[in-house]
Amino acid sequence: MLKLGIIGTGWISQQFVEAAEETKSFKLTEVYSRTEAKAKTFADKFSGDDVYLTTDLDKFFSSDKFDAVYIASPNSLHYSQAKQAIENGKQVIVEKPSTSNVHELATLQQIAKEKGVFLIEAARHIHEPIFKKVQWYLEQNKAALSGATLSYMKYSSKYDAYLDAQNPNVFTTTFSGGALYDLGVYCVYDAVVLFGEPNQVTYDAEILSSGVDGSGSLTLKYDDFDVNIIVGKTKNSFMPSEIYFGKKTLLMDSAGDITKLQQSDEKKRLSPIPAEKSDNPMDSEAVEFARIINENDQEKYAQLSRYARIVNRILEHARASAGIVFEADKEN
Ligand SMILES: NC(=O)c1ccc[n+]([C@@H]2O[C@H](COP(=O)([O-])OP(=O)(O)OC[C@H]3O[C@@H](n4cnc5c(N)ncnc54)[C@H](OP(=O)(O)O)[C@@H]3O)[C@@H](O)[C@H]2O)c1
Question: Which end of the chain is more exposed for a tag (fewer CB within 10 A), N or C?
Fold first, then answer.
């Protein structure tokens, strides 16, 4: 089993390590945190005594106690941390979005290639069986495909802190935050995996005083149809996501965390489409990432790397169209 080191001790790291250990894909062996107490609290949730702890990033990356690192720090830190991991010969799984911009992703993919290690963006939902059911449905009905509306808008638990001037990472340009990079990235992944690269990208956003987008409307133009994407962290939406096939429609209860699929037929009659859904939405990606690394599956890796590049390009074009600039952009 691959030995796993993690960066970032938030709830998402816990969920990933639970998925990794439950599916026997990876075994947690080292934790980096800025504070020893947090590293220990995190490790204790797993097999604490066998897990090494460190608060020193250089020591962490030069450690021989793990093979692969899962990076779940704020977005703008992914680049330097992934770079250091690759330079130290680690396999890298990095949370979405893996980088702040196209230049950073191109650099990381190039040095990963030179070093002969994997750099995998953790777009968890595209690996789930329920998403594969959507791909299957699209394949059956492709000739009638006529567009989609994808929605992922949730009032963030951190928005109150933002309104209270506490500056949470996800609402700052310093940490490459905002609705599009945090939630919109799931919808953009849906569009890229299902429909490919669009010809044109436009983003109309509600820009907050911190400079990031609180919510917005993204349009992706393809040859014969449009994909309209609604994202937000400042309000709650209950709209389903839909893919249109003329008179028929496929309905998904969410664009980023699909739990239910339905179809509407030519007479607008709704019926469920049965699909598998794991309790932990990160199970499927943990199994798949371990498989890619263990089997050295270069074909699948090339496909995932291509998706990551297209998604990253769309995000960067969308930001340009809405006038959103990250501090990370000024560093390149
Ligand atoms: N796939 C998914 O379903 C999913 C869900 C949520 C988030 N994410 C992604 O996971 C990543 C982390 O998101 P999050 O909301 O957990 O972020 P976050 O709470 O801002 O930070 C995550 C961790 O990074 C470390 N950290 C926080 N601020 C830092 C700073 N200023 N400098 C260095 N380290 C810092 C902290 O760990 P220590 O205190 O231990 O150092 C913290 O627990 C993002 O890329 C996000 O997009 C993915």
Answer: C
How many Å lie between the centroid of ligand 1 and the Cα of residue 227?
A: 29
Residue 139 burial (10 A CB sphere; 0-12, 13-18, 19+): exposed
Ligand 1 center from residue 263 Cα (angstroms): 36
CATH topology of domain 2-122+284-296: Rossmann fold (3.40.50)
CA of 85 to the centre of ligand 1 (A): 17
In the chain, what are the domain boundaries?
2-122+284-296, 126-281+313-330
254 ligand 1 Cβ < 6 A: no
Q: Quick count: other Cβ atoms within 10 Å of Cβ 49?
A: 6
48 lines ligand 1 (CB under 6 A): no
The yes or no reply on domain 126-281+313-330 and CATH 3.30.360.10 is yes
Q: What is the mean pLDDT of the chain?
A: 97
CB 29 near ligand 1, within 6 Å: no
* 84 touches 92 (CB < 8 A): no
CB of 162 closer than 8 Å to CB of 135: no
- pLDDT one-digit tens code per residue, 124-177: 999 999 999 999 999 999 999 999 999 999 999 999 999 999 999 999 999 999
Instruction: Give the type of residue at 139.
Output: E
User: pLDDT for 221-263, tens place per residue?
Assistant: 999 999 999 999 999 999 999 999 999 999 999 999 999 999 9
pLDDT in tens, 175-231: 999 999 999 999 999 999 999 999 999 999 999 999 999 999 999 999 999 999 999
Which residues, in sequence order, are bridge partners of residue 217? 204, 230
Q: Is 72 in the pocket of ligand 1 (CB under 6 A)?
A: yes
Closest atom of ligand 1 to 94 CA is 45
Give the position of tokens 């790291």.
Answer: 13
* CB of residue 33 inside a 6 A radius of ligand 1: yes
